Amino acid sequence: MRGIGRLLKSEAIRLERTPLLWVHLIVPLLGAAVFLGYYSFSGWGSAAKVQAYLQVVSCSWPFLCGIICALAEEMEAEGGWQNFLILPQRKYQALLAKWLVLLVAGFMACLLAVLGFAAVYRFFPEGTVFPFSVYLQEAVLIWLGQAVVYLLHLALSLRFGKTVSIGVGTAGSLLAFLMLTGLGDGIWMFFPWAWSCRGCSYLLLYAAGSGPNFTLNPSVKMEGIFCLVMGLVLTAVIFVWFSHYEGRRNLEE
Asked: Membrane spanning segments where (predicted)?
């Protein structure tokens, strides 16, 4: 446990000295500011504004994951892969530490993006269409949905390099938007990049229609269970793969 604790501390210190921290801070605040500025004169309905914003946040996150994990891989390459290759018997701890630190940073970014938006939007006409607790639940749900995406892109960056991570992140965001349409019905849970956007849409639907006669479709629960199982399987597969990881040559040179 002390080993993983030291690795976590090391990763946190390194994060503070890289652009990764600023990406997690500035991008959510800038995105919220842009939408709030547009909503100040837009004629959309209040609930539609909230739904659109949360969907854009959740669908854009895979693209950000691709960039963030690419930067994390570049940081490791510049350091000679020391944390990943000097612990032959406990290499999984190095990956776990980096993943957990990125998840913490991602959680803070989700809170800034969603709760920061909610705090200001409540001063808009009809800005209290959803209670603050719903926004908090949305932030947690978006973050949970992207947890496996962070790990997937870390693996892609380590195995294939930053270009692949960013490319797959871009495709993942486009796929997430597509999965919001009818084309995603029945298949969205097979694509981790779409978990957050579908999940936040279901939560808003429940928050808007919850009442004595409202019932959630049983298939939604089964889809959620499938996502959980698939996430656990993907996590196990990636950590097993990483236990045999020996670094890679810089294919871009």
From this structure: 21-41, 53-72, 99-124, 130-152, 220-242
